[in-house]
Amino acid sequence: MVEIDTSKPHPARMYDWYLGGKDNYPVDEAMGRQMLALDPRVPVMARVNRAFMQRATRWLAEHGVRQFLDVGTGIPTEPNLHQVAQQIAPDARVVYCDNDPIVLAHAEALLRGTDEGVTEYLQADVRDPDAILEGARKILDFDRPVALSLIALLHFVSDEDGAHELVGRLLSELPSGSYLVVSHATADFTPEESQAATEKLKAAGVTLALRSREEFTRFFDALELVEPGVDVPQLWHPELGEPIPGQDDGVIPGYGAVGRKP
């Protein structure tokens, strides 16, 4: 039986609420409304983030990547990563991973792949990279390139939990030619609002580790950045998707990048 903790907000369910989904609870909506009071453009930011994931996945599939490991999957929102990848490469293999039981409850919706492709789901936490790698290895061929996707996840992992080291551990098992895809919120553009958001979430039991551009770029230290490098998410290969309404009405306080393992 799936047990869902509704006593405190969960980032995946808050994200679902921002996107207009129904798989969230009053505690998630209440915290989401507090975030909107600080910055009413949070739903636009969430949609911009999803659009970045879709464009990055499209770019990777068009450049020959056929295996994807998506950690911090979140609640299904179409199009999901596997739908984007398998539309371009029907034989693509996709492994989703999340620690929220509500995502497990929706796994069936995530697992609808093409006849040729494979889509699977793992229940695991990014703080346990060995469990993720063990599960993914049963589905993906680690002798061939894998795209590791960490979308809007690492800003919920503190330095005390070793965010950079966790990413390094996941990448260490992937072969040359693999890719890392990351989007991440930052306080660089809105320091006062970001500080207030961090404090409100901390009081509710949610970690928010907003990193600077320099700290974000460190995730790619051993990798070759794909052009245009580190940028705000909506400016990463915008030609690969449609713009999100409202994305240019103000700053999107985040970064996105894709890097290739030599």
Detailed description of the structure:
By secondary structure, the chain is an alpha/beta fold. 37% of the residues lie in helices and 15% in strands. It contains 10 helices and 7 strands. A 7-stranded mixed sheet has the order 3-2-1-4-5-7-6, with helices on both faces. Helix 2 runs antiparallel to helix 9 and helix 3 runs parallel beside helix 4. The longest helix is centred in the first third of the chain and has 21 residues. The chain starts with 10 loop residues before the first helix and ends with a strand. The model has no long low-confidence stretch (mean pLDDT 93).
What is the fold's blueprint, element by element?
Layout: H1 11-18, H2 26-38, H3 42-62, E1 67-71, H4 81-88, E2 93-98, H5 101-105, H6 107-110, E3 118-123, H7 129-137, E4 147-151, H8 163-172, E5 179-185, H9 191-203, H10 213-217, E6 224-225, E7 254-260
Parallel strand pairs: 1-2, 1-4, 2-3, 4-5
Antiparallel strand pairs: 5-7, 6-7
How would you write the strand order of the largest sheet?
A: 3-2-1-4-5-7-6
Order of helices and strands: HHHEHEHHEHEHEHHEE
Q: What's the number of helices? A: 10
Low-confidence stretches: none
Oligomer: single chain
Q: Main beta sheet: strand number and arrangement?
A: 7 strands, mixed
How far do the termini sit from each other?
43 Å
Instruction: Sum up the overall morphology in one term.
Output: globular
Per DSSP E runs of 2 or more residues, the count of β-strands stands at: 7
Mean pLDDT: 93
Q: Helix share of residues?
A: 25-40%
Structural class: alpha/beta
**Proportion of beta-strand residues:** 5-15%
Return Rg in Å.
17 Å
